[in-house]
Design brief:
Blueprint lengths: L2 E5 L2 E4 L4 E8 L7 E7 L6 E6 L5 E3 L7 E6 L4 E6 L8 E8 L10 E2 L3 E6 L1
Parallel strand pairs: 2-11
Antiparallel strand pairs: 1-3, 3-8, 4-5, 4-9, 5-6, 7-8, 9-10, 9-11
């Protein structure tokens, strides 16, 4: 069974950090583009970052310099390190896997999401 499971969400003060993890099972990470998108209440899904199958990395301008994506192929886990969090970063963050040709927020394989709350 193809599955993605996120962990590491929580409540943090503005300026703090969190690291999200995404554990994959049922497929190999290097066959897909793996990434993160988020959705805040009342807002559209927004692509945050992804690692393409060729190793290239996309990261949204709004989080560039603060968020870092990485992966551990041996552990079949992808990470999103989020530093200097701002209240506007609060959302449910989803891990997703798919093909590079479409935006990460449209990928068909998704986890259930991890809530990130940032207090001001």
């Amino acid at each position: 069974e193809v599955q993605l499971v996120e962990s590491g969400g929580g409540l943090v003060q503005a300026g703090g950090s969190l690291r999200l993890s995404c554990a994959a099972s049922g497929f190999t990470l290097d066959d897909y583009t793996i990434g993160w998108f988020r959705q805040a209440p009342g807002k559209e899904r927004e692509g945050v970052s992804c690692i393409h199958s060729d190793g290239s990395i996309y990261i949204a301008d709004s989080v560039k310099g603060r968020f870092t994506i990485s992966s551990d192929l041996a552990k079949k886990t992808e990470y999103l390190q989020m530093n200097n969090l701002k209240p506007e970063n609060a959302a449910v963050y989803y891990c997703a896997a798919g093909q590079s040709a479409i935006p990460v927020e449209e990928y068909g394989i998704r986890g259930r999401g991890a809530q990130v709350t940032v207090s001001s």
